[in-house]
Amino acid sequence: MAETRKVQVTGGSTFTVSIPKDWATDNDVEAGSRVVFHPEEDSLVLTPVSDEERTEGSLEVSGLQGEELRRAVMTMYVSGFDVISLQADRITTDQRRTIRQATQSLVGLEVLEETGDRVVVRDLLDSSELSIHNAVDRMRLIASSMLGDAVEALATDDADLAEDVIQRDDDVDRLYMVVSRIFRATLRSPTAAEELGLPREVCFDYHSSARQLERVADHATKIAHLSLEIETAPPEEVVDSLRELHEAAAEVIDNAMAALFADENDEAIRLANRAREQVQDIDGSAREIDELLRDFDPARAQLLGLIVDSLSRSADYGGNVAETALQKAAPTP
Fold this sequence. Notes:
The two termini are 23 Å apart. This protein folds into 3 domains: 41 residues; 72 residues, Translation Initiation Factor IF3; 202 residues, Up-down Bundle (Methane Monooxygenase Hydroxylase, Chain G, domain 1). Helix 4 packs antiparallel against helix 5. It is flat and about 85 Å long. The chain is of the alpha+beta class. Helix content is 63%, strand content 12%. InterPro entries: PhoU, PhoU-like_sf, PhoU_dom, SpoVT-AbrB_dom. It holds the Pfam family MazE_antitoxin. This is PhoU domain-containing protein.
């Protein structure tokens, strides 16, 4: 609950204000404690100074297996713990294997200690050295290449290329976890945002956009899987239409991401609005391809229709990034 305090002057030139006692008690702040002030535009955020360099967390994993255990490790990672202790009366062999697999799928994590009743993993990266901008840009590059290669795998009946697309999805997921971890750190601590050199609002925009890129990669993976189910490449007319649809969707994503990263607000607004207009054109192109598929046998038409839908949805996700870019470029109240 917000409290109002009156600013006073002491010593003729020093402004002072008291802090709420309940807050001080809850955060172990007492006489002699050190606090740090973080200026944020017209606000001033106060936080206690902690002597602990790394945050530690523990989780009881008795009964957790497979995907449930893997997600638990990822959740602790995204939540920002530097040292994670996974404990049980007895850690089974399957649990150890799952924990190692989860650790290997996350950037910076390594198993530090293993005993009969616990496994300790630690993040070896310095969060202040991570760049949320670079992570999102890397996601853009991978997701865009995946989408193009997935369509090419379908067009050329290239199973090896399709399998490569499927494997690259793990890289995008790994980067998304990094972005989520950094973003949540900025929510908890103003110091984290200062170390990044970005306002928390921008970190939010990057995290929202990273989620859209992760979905684009998911649809590229879906197209790759579908291309493996289609025994022969589609007719040239359909292939050409799908390639054109992909090029249009890729342009939406490129314009939207360029708008998000633009330094000038006018340029960001121009690119974002261009991306939004292109999404409308893509909807019409997708309907035209669906008309072409009416002459195919139902099973084949359904598979190709799902590919059209994935390309169209990828453009929609680019449109969502464009909306985020517009909000980022808007005047601050």
